[in-house]
Automatic annotation (TrEMBL):
UniProt-recorded name of the protein: Chromosome segregation protein SMC
Keyword Coiled coil attributed: yes
Coiled coil: 215-301
Stored SUPFAM superfamilies: P-loop containing nucleoside triphosphate hydrolases
UniProt-listed InterPro entries: P-loop_NTPase, Rad50/SbcC_AAA
Pfam families noted in UniProt: AAA_23
GO molecular function: ATP hydrolysis activity
Single GO biological process annotation from the record: double-strand break repair
Domain of life: Bacteria
Domain Rad50/SbcC-type AAA: 6-274
């Protein structure tokens, strides 16, 4: 992994002249009070390695008559320099061959010199970066593409619906007009219907005459039936007399009891009630078992899907043990980003950024004052263990600081002169184009 062995900065933002040799692996803390030039050091490194898109809007130190000067020596022997009126870039390899920004871009990870870009990204963006570097981002891209196609289709349909609604709103409306256009043939049809109804009325009038004749005939029939009714009434009275005599003859008769039969019938009903209750219970239990089997089968499907997701990440070459993606969000040891400690967030971000370009062995961190000393030391030990280099700023002048910046200088180096000539290249490191 390529790290920064030495850097010299002059007249960049608040920096007057600074020489630093960062720790090869671990944490180099640039301390100092506010407004002294700490962040300017990181901005200068980002500009030197990341290109002109990282050039500060006011790169030259206010009041300086000498243009900015940047000189970095990397662990692979490359010398990176920006100087002159236009701050032209010069990259020289250990063999004296010249290169350019394309060479730096081949191993310098953009997020390493702009870690806040990753830290401040959304949970979904962090998860997408992780999925991409572990090789499962294609599946996610396929789903996102499908979602975009459906979204665009829905958007087009919505636009057409709006256009139709606008067109309808602009058209005049006549509430007394019929729903459909009319024609002469329709009027003729309506005329024929009226004539047919008039003919039906005439038929009904003729029917009245017929019913009246039937009425008079039925009146005569009623008169005849009334006479028959009088005869039937006389017979009814005679039968009543006969009934009274017959009832007197039945007074001494004894009826048999049906109580025993009723008891048996009642017992049969109770038995059948119990049978029906048992059948209902058996059916309910059978149904419950059937649904329980279906539930277990679905649970098995869910477990299988979750196992596939777990296997997908377990078998992936994760940049840090404990990293995962759950419900589209990045997690570390089961915790989402906002529940991680500051040290955990930095550890996750650093590990992911390193995996993006494994040859990039350094990161730049601004404003580490939110970390307590214990967390800071823990993070430093992890960097050393991983062989990573971090150059960070902290509003502090305590012992945890590797150097202190005061008024644009490293404390103890006030007035230092930065040599603006390329240093002699130590030919000891062996380096070939494309190898770091």
């Amino acid at each position: 992994m390529i790290t920064i062995s030495k850097l010299e900065i002059e007249n960049v933002k608040r920096v007057k002249a600074v020489k630093i040799e960062p720790t090869r692996a671990g944490l180099t803390v640039v301390g100092g009070k506010n407004g002294q030039g700490k962040t300017s050091v990181l901005d200068a490194i980002a500009w030197a390695l990341g290109g002109n898109k990282y050039r500060p809007s006011q790169a030259e130190r206010e009041g300086s008559v000498v243009p900015p000067y940047l000189h970095l020596v990397l662990s692979n022997g490359l010398v990176v320099e920006r100087k002159g009126k236009n701050s032209d870039l010069k990259v020289i390899d250990p063999n004296g061959q010249k290169g350019g920004q394309q060479l730096l871009d081949s191993f310098v990870e953009e997020l390493a010199i702009d870690l806040p870009k990753f830290m401040n990204s959304t949970s979904k963006e962090k998860a997408n970066i992780l999925l991409r570097i572990i090789g499962v981002g294609d599946k996610l891209h396929e789903l996102e593409t499908k979602e975009k196609e459906i979204y665009n289709q829905r958007h087009t349909i919505g636009q057409i619906a709006d256009q139709k609604a606008k067109f309808a709103k602009e058209q005049p409306y006549f509430p007394d007009a019929p729903k459909e256009p009319i024609s002469a043939s329709e009027l003729i049809r309506q005329q024929q219907e009226i004539l047919a109804r008039n003919g039906e009325n005439q038929r009904k009038r003729q029917r009245v005459v017929e019913i009246r004749a039937d009425y008079f005939r039925q009146q005569q029939e009623v008169k005849r039936l009334t006479e028959l009714l009088n005869d039937a009434q006389a017979k009814f009275e005679q039968l009543g007399n006969d009934l009274g005599i017959a009832q007197k003859d039945t007074l001494d008769l004894m009826d048999e009891s049906t109580e025993a039969l009723e008891a048996n019938i009642q017992q049969i009903d109770e038995i059948n009630r119990k049978v029906r209750a048992n059948l209902d219970k058996d059916k309910a239990e059978t149904d419950a078992n059937d649904y329980r089997v279906q539930y277990e089968a679905l649970t098995g499907n869910i477990t299988a899907i979750r196992q596939q997701k777990t296997d997908l990440l377990t078998n992936a070459n994760l940049p840090l043990p404990g990293l995962s993606v759950e419900d589209g969000e990045l997690t570390y040891n089961g915790q989402k980003w906002d529940n991680m400690s500051g040290a955990e967030q930095l550890r996750v971000a650093t590990a992911i950024v390193r995996r993006l370009k494994p040859n990039c062995g350094f990161i730049l961190l601004d404003k580490l004052e939110q970390m307590d000393l214990e967390t800071l030391n823990e993070f430093g030990r992890w960097l050393e263990q991983e062989g990573l280099q971090a150059i960070a700023t902290r509003v502090s002048t305590g012992d945890e600081c590797s150097i202190i910046i005061e008024d644009g200088y490293v404390a103890g180096q006030e007035g230092v002169q930065v040599q603006q000539q390329p240093e002699a290249i130590d030919p000891a490191p062996t380096w070939k184009v494309g190898e770091f």
